[in-house]
Amino acid sequence: MAQEHVLVVDDEEDIQELVRYNLVRNGFDVTVVGTGEEALESARAKVPDLILLDLMLPGIDGLEVCTVLKHEQKTAHIPIVMLTARGEESDVVAGLELGADDYITKPFSPRVLVARVKAVLRRKAEASPDRTAVIKRGDLFVHPGRHEVTVKGKSIQLTSTEFEILYHLARRPGWVFTRHQLIDAARGEEYPVTDRSVDVHIVSLRRKLGAVGKLIETVRGVGYRFREK
Questions:
Q1: Residues 120/11/93/139 CA torsion (nearest 10 deg)
Q2: Which domains does the chain have, with CATH numbers?
């Protein structure tokens, strides 16, 4: 089986080597670049399976790189894990709003980093037997096996986290899920959930789904549900 390719984008040489060493040691094919411009060039030339993206970069910063990649058809599906030394909620929220799938705050444990990378790639690849049936809710079609969403036949580009949240809600219309339940379903129980991060994903989902997004209802004080018709 071919090695999974990870693109590491960070301008600090010690971080580059630490990440490269630990990923290669765990069987990944790794490309390392130090600027946003190099990141865009590399991702377009050889589309990676995942990108580890530092937010603080010289020239084009990480948030802009994320924006560009998520708006290009060839690279929009690539999971992006943000690396941030600032650890501020505003940075994390901004990245999630732009389509990033996860984040790790510096300094980080190499073991945690590798575990997060594996978890994101595993979620991307998984298609268990109970996820083979297409979910139809009015004009909305969710194709779990193909990881595709369409509204009135038009393909909707979602991040892996947005897809999992939508799938979790749409497969059980009328059920109310807490924010923690949704993030657990999308990322696993070890993800450091915040109410704000879940709300950001829901806002993005509603925007991308257009009129169908109104079917995702807020249950005040509890969480969210997909309207049962």
A1: -50
A2: 5-125 (3.40.50.2300), 129-226 (1.10.10.10)
pTM of the model: 0.60
- Comparing CA positions, the residue from 65, 72, 73, 71 lying closest to residue 81 is 65
What's the whole-number average pLDDT of the chain? 86
Report the candidate in 78, 72, 84 with the shortest Cα–Cα distance to residue 100: 78
Q: What DSSP letter does each residue of 174-199 carry, written as one string?
A: T-EEEHHHHHHHHH-TTS---HHHHH
For residue range 120-144, what is the model confidence (pLDDT) as tens digits? 888 766 544 455 678 999 999 998 8
* CA Rg value for the chain: 18
In whole angstroms, what is the distance from residue 226 CA to residue 153 CA? 20
- On whether the CB atoms of residues 207 and 158 are closer than 8 A, the answer is no
Specify which residues 217 forms β-bridges with: 225
Euclidean distance between CA atoms 20 and 77, whole angstroms: 23
Give dist(CA 178, CA 28) in Å, integer: 35
Tokens linked to 2: 């071919």
Which residues does 210 contact at the CB level (< 8 Å), separation at least 6? 151
Q: How far apart are CA 111 and CA 19, in angstroms?
A: 10
Write the secondary structure of 140-174 as one string of H (helix), E (strand) and C (coil): EEEECCCCEEEECCEECCCCHHHHHHHHHHHCCCC
- The Cα–Cα gap between 76 and 73 comes to 5
